[in-house]
């Protein structure tokens, strides 16, 4: 019996109400609209279901891959012979812990989280309102924008490890530029606590609206993408380097270096993972040749 047949049987017994899809194209669940079929895709409704599911996966020999909203992923055209666990959409509970602290599940979108904070008259999360990912993904990579980063507001992260559920203080999260202690994928983020400051609800809303206008004006949001394709090299901006190299509009198949913002590789129609990877390599090679700077992908490439 295959691992997924064993898993199907186990889920039927222990998690009968768990949303589960079979051989589902990952292109449905990534902002790039790219990716072949995942053997199984499950959407736990809460932390308890996720913990049980991880245990069942281990017992059945499955290789789980936990994702949030799929906004920073480039998935193989061949698909994934894995159990994909998607926290976004279902696992999104949020609550106020006290006057300045909120706690939320990993699957909640940053936009919804920022709006919840605004509703509580809490400031400090405005930068995250336009970031399209989930809280878990944002903590995983210490997401940031417009001078803000998750490390500025996260005080505690709840994770599932091989030894059980643990609460990790911010001091032990090893937050860095697009990095955290969880980037190795050895633990699963269940949720996080964030400490914010009391503020004026109207001013918070105005700031979020201002940042959204800036984002729409400068980024190619009208096309599928995974956001910024490359990390910011120390002392440089990736988009500027790519633009100065004359690569705006460079196209491979359905993948293109955006003419609006050179730091974005976009899907202009029918792009494959192979197209994007080829384009990334061309950009890396030409920027290194002309500028002497290595560009490291920020997008997370998932090929198995």
The residue-averaged pLDDT reads 96
Radius of gyration: 20 Å
β-strand amount: 25-35%
Query: What is the chains' assembly state?
Result: single chain
Largest beta-sheet characterization: 5 strands, antiparallel
Q: How do the strands line up in the largest sheet?
A: 6-7-13-11-12
Number of separate helices: 7
Give the CA-CA distance, first to last residue.
21 Å
Listing every helix as H and every strand as E from the N terminus to the C terminus, the arrangement reads HEEHEEEEEHEHEEEEEEHEHEEEHE
Which residue ranges are poorly predicted, with pLDDT under 50 across at least 5 consecutive positions?
none
Number of strands: 19
Helix content: 25-40%
Shape: globular
Task: Give the helix/strand class.
Answer: alpha+beta
């Amino acid at each position: 019996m295959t691992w997924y047949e064993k898993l199907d049987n186990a889920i039927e017994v222990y998690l009968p109400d768990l949303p589960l899809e079979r051989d589902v194209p990952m292109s449905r669940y990534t902002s790039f609209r790219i990716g072949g079929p995942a053997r199984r895709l499950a959407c736990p409704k809460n932390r308890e279901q996720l913990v049980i599911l991880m245990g069942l996966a281990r017992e059945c020999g499955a290789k789980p891959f936990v994702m949030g909203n799929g906004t920073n992923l480039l998935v193989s055209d061949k698909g994934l012979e894995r159990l994909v666990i998607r926290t976004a959409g279902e696992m999104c509970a949020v609550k106020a812990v006290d006057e300045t602290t909120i706690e939320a599940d990993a699957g909640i979108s940053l936009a919804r989280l920022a709006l919840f904070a605004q509703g509580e008259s809490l400031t400090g999360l405005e930068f995250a309102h336009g970031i399209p990912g989930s809280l878990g993904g944002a903590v995983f990579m210490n997401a940031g924008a417009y001078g803000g980063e998750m490390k500025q507001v996260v005080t505690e992260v709840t994770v599932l490890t091989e030894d059980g559920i643990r609460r990790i203080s911010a001091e032990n999260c090893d937050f860095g530029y697009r990095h955290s202690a969880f980037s190795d994928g050895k633990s699963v983020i269940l949720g996080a606590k964030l400490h914010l400051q009391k503020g004026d609800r109207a001013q918070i809303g105005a700031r979020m609206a201002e940042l959204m206008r800036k984002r729409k004006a400068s980024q190619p949001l009208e096309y599928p993408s995974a956001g910024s394709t490359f990390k910011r090299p120390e002392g440089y901006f990736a988009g500027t380097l790519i633009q100065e190299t004359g690569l705006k509009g460079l196209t491979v198949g359905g993948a293109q270096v955006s003419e609006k913002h050179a730091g974005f590789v976009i899907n202009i129609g029918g792009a494959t993972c192979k197209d994007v990877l080829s384009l990334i390599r061309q950009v890396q090679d030409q920027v290194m040749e002309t500028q002497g700077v290595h560009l490291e992908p920020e997008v997370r490439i998932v090929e198995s």
